[in-house]
Amino acid sequence: MGEVIQLNNESLLKYVLQLADNAMILGQRLAETCGHGPVLEQDIAITNISLDLIGEARVLYQYAAEIEGGGKTEDDYPYKRDVRDWQNILLVEQPNGHFGHIIMRQFMFDCYHYCHLKAMIDSSDERLAQIAAKTIKEATYHLKYSSEWVIRLGDGTEESHDKMQEALNDRIRFFDEAFIPSKIENEESLNGIKVDCVAIRKLAWAKFQEICQTATLEIPEVKFPQKGGKDGLHSEHFGYLLSELQFLQKSYPNSNW
To answer: pTM for the complete prediction?
Structure first.
C-alpha cells in the first residue's frame, strides 16, 4: 500500500466517479427486471446482483464526497448530476431486452469488472484497494453466474442459442469501450492509483472468448467499437433511465430518507 492520497485531488475524484457510475447504472438497469425474471430463482439472483452493484457504487460515491468536501454526500452524485456529467460506459446503460440480452450485457461487464477489481487491489490508493478487495468477492460470483448462463443458453436449444447469438451480435460493439482509456485514465497524476485498462484487456478478452467458445457462440468482428460514455456522451437510452432514477429528488428537492 502507498501513501494516503490528498483529498483535493480533482483527477482522483473524477476517476472514482467513473468507477461508481458504471456500477450505479448497471445496478439501476438490473433493478428494472425485479418481478420480471423468467423464473423466480433468476429474478431473485439478478436483483441481488443489482443490490451488490448499487452497494459498490455507494461506497465509491461516499469516497468521492470525502474527496470533494464542501458538504457533499453520496446522494449528490446519482441524484443531482445531469446527463453529460455521468462517465459510465455505454454498455451498462443499454436497455434490458430479453433475458439473453440481460445475461450477455452482464457477462461482458463481469469480464471487465472482475479483471479491473483484481488489478485495483494493488492500487497505491488505500481506499480504492480496500474497496476492490471487498468487492472482488461479489464480482467473482457475478462472473460465475453470467458465464454459466451464457453457456447454458448458448449451448442449449436451437432457440436459446439463436437468442444468445443475437444478444452477442447486438452488445459486442459496446464491449471494448471499457478498455479504451478515458481522459482521466490517461492522467499521469493517477499513475499507481488507476488500473491500466489496456493491460487488463487481454485477460478479460481471454475469459470472454473461452466462455463464448464453450457456448458455441461466434464472436462478430467489430471494426468501430462504440465509445463516448466515459466522456459524458451517452446513448439515446440514458436520459430516460436517468429521469426515472432522479424522479423523486427532482420532484421533491433535497428530500431525505
So the answer is: 0.93
